[in-house]
Design goal:
By secondary structure, the chain is an alpha+beta fold. The protein is built from 15 helices and 24 strands. It binds flavin-adenine dinucleotide. The site of flavin-adenine dinucleotide has 39 residues, from helix 1, strand 10, strand 15 and strand 20.
Length: about 525
């Protein structure tokens, strides 16, 4: 690829960057998004899956609470197909300060969050697995949201308006001329090719990495990565988002998302958003926390654990000791007024729930800097597949499957992925990476973690893309290694048995470790 040029270059392909590129394209700017990995492989692909009502923040961070509620309403409207309308409970358990509940209700009223108290008995009737010792329960409009569908929905919408989306393109440098950022030097991480992108304006939407990108233009930006871990359990232990009614703390939310329930999370200040170690103590802490909300939690099967890094912005980082004290609201930095660097803004902090608002603020600033008046319309137009305004529902894949029971093969039993859906995804994404396909159709995300479906998917990929067998082997091995990272820290009980079985299939029968693979050294910094 030779050099490219554009009006607006967006750095970062998480929810914020995807929102920004859509907003810019819809306002008629030519725009390019670059992301060093696949879309939503930073924090956005590693979060809890909760479309916040804002209830969590009503006492501690009322501004963030109101923003969440406003954007919750917008996303339900424009991204309905990505949302499961689970509703949310805030429950007072024996470990929670009973006085907090009244402050919570008052905070909901102030933030404009609809809240209704129901008797504890009614809460237990609706959610029989939750702790029978709860004393109060409040219902709020929390929901579960599919991150990959939302982010790719924004990317598809942006493409329809002429945007170029470049996953696997890493920004290496931001050239400046007379104090103005003029674009970026990027590297295609698949081929190793480096090239320049010239841009009228650059938006830094790189989340917890925003400080690293800003420093390429000589700007000093402090983003504290706040590490949080989450564990997916193999069933829907609850069908409603269940929060503890207390000040935000560790392990106080369970989100039912697709076929699993996710407990989270922690908040620990770390130095590097790329080095997120998960310790056995943290896993134990989450399982104990789950036990308080759903007695018997520890006996359930834990599927997978992962960690993400919150982008927490502070103008002066030194004073912060507890990352929970940093606002969950977002920050827009205009580097012209702040640092004397023109045509460059950073948008960071915030929540997944508020990404559209963050994008609007960023492109409003771009318009102001370029002296053009173009109104934002992202709250009015639905994302692709959400046009009918129908929420996703848990039974939808089963219903589709029943229609094609006799004329389509089932590739992934856990996530009910038929062959035709997988083939369509391979063609649409134009990828030979099984992990990209996992994010696209949830391949291998259920209880067997790819044990039964991934060798079938490799065969289908191999045939459809006419891959060299070495390339197919590499894709399979990469997938297995990625899955192993999430399984290894929680190996106990049934999941340990599953891992042993998977090991027999892949090492014992298929001997994947010794399957021939292409030489990767050409484009990657691998030891000789
Ligand atoms: C544990 C945890 C749980 C959370 N739960 C929730 C929740 O339930 N609900 C909610 O609303 N919010 C939640 N959040 C917050 C939310 O996930 C984040 O605020 C949001 O996803 C941040 O999105 P982003 O696009 O700004 O950052 P990211 O998703 O991190 O995107 C930034 C991107 O920039 C890319 N990048 C970095 N360097 C370069 C480079 N040199 N070149 C090109 N690209 C680069 C990265 O690869 C990354 O993909 C949670 C956060 C954490 C950590």
């Amino acid at each position: 690829m030779g050099g490219l040029s554009t009006d607006v270059l967006v750095i970062g392909g998480g929810s914020t960057g995807a929102g920004v590129v859509r907003d810019a394209a819809m306002r008629g700017f030519s725009t390019i998004l670059v992301e060093r990995g696949d879309l939503a492989t930073g924090t956005t692909g590693r979060f809890h899956g909760l479309l916040h009502s804002g209830g969590r923040y009503v006492v501690k961070d009322p501004r963030s609470a109101r923003e969440c509620m406003d954007e919750n309403r917008v996303l339900r409207r424009i991204a309905a197909d990505c949302v499961e309308d689970t509703g949310g409970f805030f429950v007072t358990t024996p470990w929670d300060d009973p006085d907090y509940a009244d402050r919570f209700v008052e905070g909901c009223h102030v933030a404009g969050i609809p809240v209704q108290e129901i008797p504890a008995g009614e809460a237990l009737r609706r959610e029989p697995n939750i702790n029978p010792e709860i004393s109060r329960c409040f219902v709020v409009p929390d929901a579960a949201i599919d991150t990959w569908k939302t982010v790719w929905g924004c990317a598809r919408s942006a493409k329809e308006d002429g945007a170029t989306i470049l996953p696997y393109h890493r920004v290496l440098a931001l050239p400046t001329l007379n104090g103005t950022v003029t674009g970026a030097r990027v590297r295609n991480e698949r081929t190793g090719e480096e090239f320049a992108i010239e841009a009228e304006f650059v938006v830094n939407a790189s989340g917890a990495w925003a400080g690293q990108i800003a420093s390429m233009a000589g700007c000093d930006v402090h983003v504290l990565p706040g590490k949080g871990i989450m564990i997916a359990m193999n069933h829907r232990l609850v069908n409603t988002v269940v929060n503890r009614c207390e000040m935000p703390a560790d392990g106080d939310i369970i989100v039912p998302i697709r076929t699993v329930s996710v407990i989270g999370t922690t908040d620990v200040r770390v130095t590097d958003p790329d080095a997120l170690e998960i310790t056995p103590a943290e896993v134990d802490q989450m399982l104990d926390a789950g036990e308080r909300l759903v007695p018997g939690f520890r006996e359930q099967r834990a599927l997978r654990v992962w960690a993400g890094a919150r982008p927490l912005y502070q103008e002066t980082a030194d004073a912060i000791t507890d990352t929970r004290d940093v606002t969950r609201s977002h920050t827009l930095l205009n580097h012209r007024t702040r640092d004397g660097v023109e045509r460059f803004v950073t948008i960071t902090g915030g929540k997944f729930t508020t990404f559209r608002l963050m994008a609007k603020d960023a492109i409003d600033a771009v318009c102001a800097e370029l002296g053009t008046d173009r109104p934002c319309t992202t709250d009015q137009e639905a994302l692709p597949d959400s046009e009918e305004g129908r929420y996703y529902w848990l039974g939808s894949r089963l219903a589709e499957r029943e229609e094609t029971l006799h004329d389509d093969q089932l590739v992934c039993e856990c996530e009910l992925i038929p062959r035709r859906r997988l083939e369509a995804a391979i063609e649409r994404r134009q990828t030979t990476d099984l992990d990209d396909l996992r994010r696209t159709v949830r391949l291998g995300m259920g209880p067997c973690q790819g044990g039964f479906c991934i060798y079938r998917a490799t065969g289908i990929l191999h045939a459809l893309k006419q891959l060299a067998s070495d390339d197919a082997n590499r894709s399979l091995l990469n997938f297995l290694q990625e899955r192993w990272k999430g399984v290894q820290p929680i190996l106990y009980g049934d999941q340990l048995r599953q891992a042993r079985l998977d090991d027999w299939i892949f090492q014992g029968l298929l001997d994947v470790e010794h399957a021939p693979q292409p030489d990767l050294r050409e484009h990657q910094d691998l030891p000789a």
